[in-house]
Specification:
single chain; 183 residues; mainly alpha; two-stranded antiparallel ribbon; 7 helices; 2 strands
Length: 183
């Protein structure tokens, strides 16, 4: 998806020009985030579509691989949270894109991110390390999501750095989730 986004960024003139606070010496395309969002959302929506087909009876559950059959009830149960997760992720992406296009400034951007994250937490998306203390879990989730979002924004100063860190982080989360059978 990245080569397509590079081409579109040049065509639509969504470019980052060199400046005094920039380390690059030439014009750089600014739609790398859209490539990441598309690459992230497409498999999630494809999986959600298959789960919805299985739930509705349109897709024979018996033909699914063993692990998918085993985890299908769990996948069905998290479908509502997936909607909030995707909606929040898209909202955060839009805030970042608007910041790239219009330079929102750190205060407005942080406030917008905070509002989106609070809505996600209120909808039930929160860390589960303190199940007996939902308020504490909600506050920690807000801090964690704001921190990670802005950490990646600060990393976005070299081509591929954010994507590379995201890949390594995702592989670590995959390893941890797999070791706990949290497919």
């Amino acid at each position: 998806v990245t080569p397509l986004m590079i081409s579109l960024a040049y065509r639509w003139k969504i470019l980052d020009r060199p400046g005094e606070r920039k380390i690059h010496q030439k014009v750089m395309p600014r739609l790398g985030g859209l490539a990441i969002v598309i690459s992230f959302i497409f498999p999630l929506l494809s999986g959600a579509f298959l789960v919805a087909l299985a739930k509705s009876g349109w897709l024979d559950k018996e033909r699914w691989p063993g692990l998918a059959q085993l985890h299908l009830p769990g996948m069905i149960s998290v479908m509502p949270k997936l909607f909030y997760f995707l909606a929040g992720g898209i909202a955060i992406f839009i805030i970042g894109l608007l910041d790239d296009l219009k330079d929102l400034g750190p205060g407005k951007k942080l406030l917008a991110e905070f509002i989106v994250i609070v809505v996600m937490v209120v909808s039930g998306m929160r860390l589960s390390i303190f199940p007996e203390a939902p308020l504490l879990a909600g506050i920690l989730t807000i801090i964690w999501m704001l921190s990670i979002t802005n950490a990646f924004n600060l990393l976005d100063n070299m081509d591929g750095l954010s994507a590379g860190v995201a890949l390594v982080s995702s592989l670590i989360f995959l390893t941890i989730a797999s070791s706990q059978q949290q497919y």
